[in-house]
Amino acid sequence: MKAEIFSKKISDMGIRTVTGVPDSTLQQFCDYIGREEEKVFDNHVVAENEGAAIGIAIGEYLATGCPACVYMQNSGLGNAVNPLTSLAHTDVYGIPMLLVVGWRGEPETKDEPQHKYMGKITLGLLKLLDISYAVVASETTEGELEAFLQEAKAAFSENKQYALVIKRGAFDKEKTAVYRNSYSMKRERAIEIIVDWLQQEDIVVSTTGKISRELYEQCNMIKGSHEQAFLTVGGMGHTNMIACQIACRKPKQRVICLDGDGALLMHMGSLAILAQNPVDNMIHICLNNEAHESVGGMPTGAPGVSYASIAQKCGYCKVCRVEDETELQKILSELRMERQMAFLEIGVAVGSRDDLGRPGETPEENKMAFMKCLKER
Known about the structure:
42% of the residues lie in helices and 17% in strands. By secondary structure, it is of the alpha/beta class.
């Protein structure tokens, strides 16, 4: 099905606002509604997290009486559960809305390990949330989609939510949009410099997606091992808290947190908590490409935001921002000589190499190797 047809049929229901967090399963849909020349919907907001997108949908209905469309990866249902159950459900305010959910980790399909469990429970979770749904696949016809949307309208009339669960490949392959920013340094080159700078006793905790994949490869190539790195393959936005607690319990080691701007944006309140509870052996690095790189490279909802400025306002002991290799190498040398909670923002270009690999070990194997490494230090 073409993303244009899908979008227009949703618009024909009277939906004018669409909001959510981009997902690779929904890339054609996200690309289509994100184009400036496309005005199928009056209002499109890329939210910081899925719970916030539910909040936008609630506000839309209260202000206009019209349901909104909220898109997300199925992992994002975790962020959405609270406002769905404590605000939108008919036992509370009864706010109708259409959920468009990308189904990662669908049973009996090959996917990344972090999607396996949520993929298995996605349909059951929607049932538990009292949300009727339909599954949209590559073979779904326009007539079937129209029937699903009629079911959605019936749910709306009862002040309920309705979900379209989108299988991978449901949308026709189209030329995807290519997003750029003003930065020239490649993210993997920045990670390469950081890995080369690491000392044997240092610890690294990296965020979801391509940052962890690039760290994994660079550690293996430069250090001969990735045992000192914990790859936070899921739970987007929580890496910095994991790193902070490790730093608290391992005060003799330097802990480097490799965060992404999309992940940091998702749970930005962590900046305030980290700054007010500083650990002097942690360096918090944000690799900022202004995009959700790992799910198609779509822009975040906050391009141009200076995370370094926010960290400084929150109270980080030392804050720096760089955009090129020379600046990065210089500031890393300075940080090596200091002992204080630091935040470093690195502006990097959108994009990664086509042959970027994935970890060869399971998350369990990564965990055990990392914990063994920590125990020995």
